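[Meeting: bench + compute handoff]

Bench side (C.D.) handed over the final construct sequence. Compute side (W.E.) agreed to return the predicted structure before the next meeting so the bench team could plan truncations. Sequence as handed over:
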Amino acid sequence: MLQIVVDWFVYSLLRLDASTRLGEAVHFFVYDTIKIILLLFVMISFIGVLRSFLPQQRVKIWLADKKWFANLFASIFGAVTPFCSCSSIPIFLSFLKGGVPLGVTFSFLITSPLINEYLVVLMIGFFGWKITIAYIISGITIGVIVGLILGKMGLEKYIVKDLTGDIKLDEEQVFNNFLIRLRFGIAEAIAIIKRIWIWIIVGVGIGAFIHNYIPRETIQGVISKTGPFSVPLATLLGVPMYGSCAAIVPIAVALFRKGIPLGTALAFMMATAALSLPEAIILRRAMKLKLIAIFFAITTLGIIFTGYLINLLQTILL
């Protein structure tokens, strides 16, 4: 339904040509902006209702006692949620408001866009099951390890407090029936959207430009000429990119078929899926720039290491 409405708005009402880059960019911008805001509203409301059933202090204690198991659980949960890097932010914010440790929330934020059912199906079709399994294991491992590292660094001071809120205020509330719980979830969703909507628009706007105006042939040409430095270069080129799984996997396949090593192609796909400029811009409303930079830097290093490892194991996986 949303696709039909956006098609009518962009191509009929605005009279833009679907075959032009401008038409595709505007369609991308309108569709993704509406999709992310709707997803924000639905997911934050849903998580808010769920949180009303769980004493937040008990959740914090449970996760704290589980040590690395909490990061593993968050990464696996991220793997089964079909979200992109921007769309996974609603649950990330809800986890923060629920008092979930920062490192655990990052494990989810990293893995959620890296692995999802749609991407797995596409990868099996293009790469086969052995490479797909290696990708899934490496993605979950990156989520766990990076989450553990960030959790040990004491970075909570870089979270914007007015967005995550005061956890004690939520604990004092009494929920006598489901309607009150539902109102609590909806109110929380509206409050968060009011604070970050401008960041969503800016972020998706940048993503729409990159997605439609940077030719994939340019990327392929640059990566193919860098030899042993292809993995870090592919990762760094993937960070500013933004696109859906349907766009990312074919690019990785094209890189691989042009003779670029498997790990290099997958590193580009991981960076494109897990890290993007639109994501950084939206996260800016929830955390300070230093925390975003640390998160991106450590995740990028994890992807680069994984890329080199998969290159070493390429003969086994093929």
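W.E. noted at the follow-up: The chain has one domain: 2-317. C.D. will use this when planning the next construct.
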